[in-house]
């Protein structure tokens, strides 16, 4: 099964740095290099949210949540569980599955959508009204989630794939087992997940829940190093 959780970063407290000891050194160092506070909040919240969901939904002990990276730099958790993170605007989201998974969330902004036409396959250009904001972001998040499922972003080979309106994915060179599913995040946002199994739940997690979970674990969590 695949489960999705999301959280709003504007609910985080001003003393959010006290949660850094629960994150891997690699993540902490990345956060410290960030210049924008919003980027720091999104990264910290996304990782805390994922850790909490792995423990509470998949019966993992917090000390078992040992993130590693594959050859593409994608986070993974051993062989039995896969997860992926995304954040945009005021929201962060994570998808956790027993199969490879990708997720993308985007805050919709007005832009010149015509400059992105080279990103779409011929079939997609006919299926979607890609000069319209909602259609553009529907396909954009689906393509991004597929790219993250495969382990690359909007890579050249991703342009060869066609994502149809029912979420099925056609690639001329290979059979794709996964499909994309849009889900509701908040007004003014688009979101999609790419998965091989079923989408079980989409849960809006309040920051208070994350706070309670980690405060209960103060003193019981042994900080671990990120395995590269």
Automatic annotation (TrEMBL):
Gene3D superfamilies: 4'-phosphopantetheinyl transferase domain. It comes from the Bacteria. Pfam families: AASDHPPT_N (PF22624), ACPS (PF01648). Belongs to the P-Pant transferase superfamily. Gsp/Sfp/HetI/AcpT family. Residues 15-95 form the 4'-phosphopantetheinyl transferase N-terminal domain. The keyword Iron does not apply. Residues 100-166 form the 4'-phosphopantetheinyl transferase domain. The lineage of its organism: Bacteria, Bacillati, Bacillota, Bacilli, Bacillales. Keywords: Transferase. The keyword Cytoplasm does not apply. SUPFAM superfamilies: 4'-phosphopantetheinyl transferase (SSF56214). GO terms for molecular function: transferase activity. This is Phosphopantetheinyl transferase.
């Amino acid at each position: 099964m695949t489960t999705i959780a999301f959280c709003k970063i504007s609910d985080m407290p001003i003393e959010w740095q006290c949660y850094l000891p629960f994150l891997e050194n690699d993540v902490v160092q990345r956060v410290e290099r960030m210049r924008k506070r919003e980027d720091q909040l999104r990264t910290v919240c996304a990782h805390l949210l994922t850790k909490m969901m792995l423990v509470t939904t998949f019966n993992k002990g917090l000390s078992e949540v040992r993130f590693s990276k594959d050859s593409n730099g994608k986070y993974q958790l051993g062989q039995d569980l896969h997860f992926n993170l995304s954040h945009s605007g005021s929201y962060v989201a994570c998808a956790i599955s027993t199969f490879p998974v990708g997720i993308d969330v985007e805050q919709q902004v007005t832009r010149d959508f015509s400059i992105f036409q080279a990103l779409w396959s011929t079939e997609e250009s006919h299926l979607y009204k890609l000069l319209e904001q909602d259609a553009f972001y529907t396909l954009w998040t689906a393509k991004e989630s597929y790219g993250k499922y495969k382990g690359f972003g909007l890579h050249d080979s991703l342009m060869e794939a066609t994502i149809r309106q029912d979420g099925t994915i056609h690639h001329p060179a290979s059979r794709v087992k996964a499909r994309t599913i849009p889900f509701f995040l908040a007004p003014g946002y688009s979101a999609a997940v790419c998965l091989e199994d079923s989408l079980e739940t989409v849960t809006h997690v309040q920051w208070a829940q994350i706070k309670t979970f980690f405060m209960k674990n103060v003193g019981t969590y042994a900080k671990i190093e990120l395995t590269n």
